[in-house]
Amino acid sequence: MRKIFLALMATLALSGCGYNEFQRLDEAVTASWSEVVNNYQRRADLIPNLVATVKGAADFEKSTLEAVVNARASVGQLKVTPEMLSDPAAFANFEKAQGALSGALSRLLAVAEAYPQLKATDAFRDLTAQLEGAENRITVARGRYIKTVEAYNVSVRTFPNNLTAMVFGYKAKPNFTVANEKEISVAPKVDFGKPAAPAPAPAK
Questions:
Q1: Which CATH class is domain 24-184?
Q2: pTM > 0.70: yes or no
Q3: Where are the domains of the chain?
Q4: Containing H/E element for 24?
Q5: Residues sharing a CB contact under 8 Å with residue 39, sequence separation 6 or more, in sequence order
Q6: How many CB atoms lie within 10 A of CB 119?
Q7: Is 43 helix (H, G, I), strand (E, B) or coil?
Q8: How distant, in Å, are the alpha carbons of 49, 67, 107 from that of 115?
Q9: Residues 72-93: tens digit of each pLDDT
């Protein structure tokens, strides 16, 4: 009976000091991180076909294509594991590599504006539409991750949960930086040559 009582008291104590809350928040962070990674991977999977399609355009800027290929290769070399969420340096490398790929893709789409025949192909139009959708999903997933990590970090740093965090080794998790968020989380806008507005009629 005494053991049952002590176990009950221990359970109540852990609940009151935020232990169960840490479990819930930690699981939420892991789930939102998986969503981020899956959506970045969805984008990476589109790139080989996009590059192959663009290569078919005569005289397309080689340096622009190489930048995309190299940026994707850098992303592919990253070891993305749950442990990354406890390693600020590894998380920063992940963010930097994904940001470089976003920038390279944006430049490729901007250069593609000078190739009307390329933009007119069904393959290119389909791939850029899929890419824009992937970027939108990345933005949503990053936003959810940012909010989830903020909730977790607040719990780690506030009393009395911070005492539990020290006892059980819970530490604040790295998050996406605000400056970088503004720079790379905007989905590419692709204009396939909308007709210009008619000029106003001359005054009589």
A1: mainly alpha
A2: yes
A3: 24-184
A4: helix 19-55
A5: 134, 137, 138, 141
A6: 18
A7: helix
A8: 18, 18, 14
A9: 999 999 999 888 999 999 999 9
